[in-house]
Amino acid sequence: MSDILFHGYWRSSAAYRVRIALNLKGLDYEQVDHDLRTGAQQDPAYKAIAPAGLVPAIEHEGQAYIQSLAILEWLEERWPEPALLPRALNERAIVRGMAMTVAADIHPLNNLRILKYLKNELDQPQERIDAWIGHWIQEGFAALEVLVGRYGEGFAFGAAPTIADCFLVPQVFNAERFNVDLASYPKIRAIAEKARVLPAFAAAHPDRQPAADV
Questions:
Q1: End-to-end CA gap in the chain
Q2: Pair 12, 36: CB distance under 8 Å
């Protein structure tokens, strides 16, 4: 049995990021799935681990870690090879900024609890919710397309996967899931296509998780 217990939800893009990183690091982990559609993440036993009732979370050696970017930073420091951040200080800041464009500017506005609130509390029709989703993905991708063009050499930054790719590829999955037009972002699409064939990314795909119901 692995000493890493990974709490996620098979279709969560935040959990998808962490699976990619775990796979890139070559780490074994045991998965526990919390179905966000049924509110399983609000179970008191899970909230004792992750008080906000959000996925992902990791338990390791008696300590719990939450928030995908913090988890990826922890993984990088705990198991530094293969590196998911560049060696140079300035370059690490650029990669973190690219990851944060997804983590702070796109994903929070489109995660499940926001979409439920738009539908159930604000009574928005699905077509308006879809427009909301597409708007924020395209806003973020417009910026990322420029950054990838500036710094990418096959991946989001440079010629090897970094934390930026761990965030970008799941966000492309979300965009495709919601039928967002990605024609204006050829560099982002090329990175996603290249990354998805790598074993670490392929094994992390939502459809390949044990709890997937697709």
A1: 27
A2: yes
Please work out, in degrees rounded to the nearest 5, the angle formed at the alpha carbon of residue 21 by the alpha carbons of 82 and 45.
135
The one-letter amino acid code at 14 reads: A
Q: Smallest Cα–Cα separation from 156: which of 112, 116, 127, 189? A: 189
List, in sequence order, every residue forming a beta bridge with 66; answer none if it has no partner. Answer: 57
Closest CA to 128 of 137, 136, 143, 118: 118
Question: Which residue segments constitute the domains of the chain, with CATH numbers given?
Answer: 4-82 (3.40.30.10), 89-200 (1.20.1050.10)
At 53, give phi and psi (nearest 5°). Answer: 70, 40
Which of 19-33, 74-88, 127-141 shows the lowest per-residue confidence on average (mean pLDDT)? 127-141
Per the DSSP assignment, residues forming a β-bridge with 8 are: 33
Q: With 70 as the cut, is the pLDDT of residue 1 above it?
A: no
The answer to whether the pTM exceeds 0.85 is yes
The string of pLDDT tens digits covering residues 118-140 is 999 999 999 999 999 999 999 99
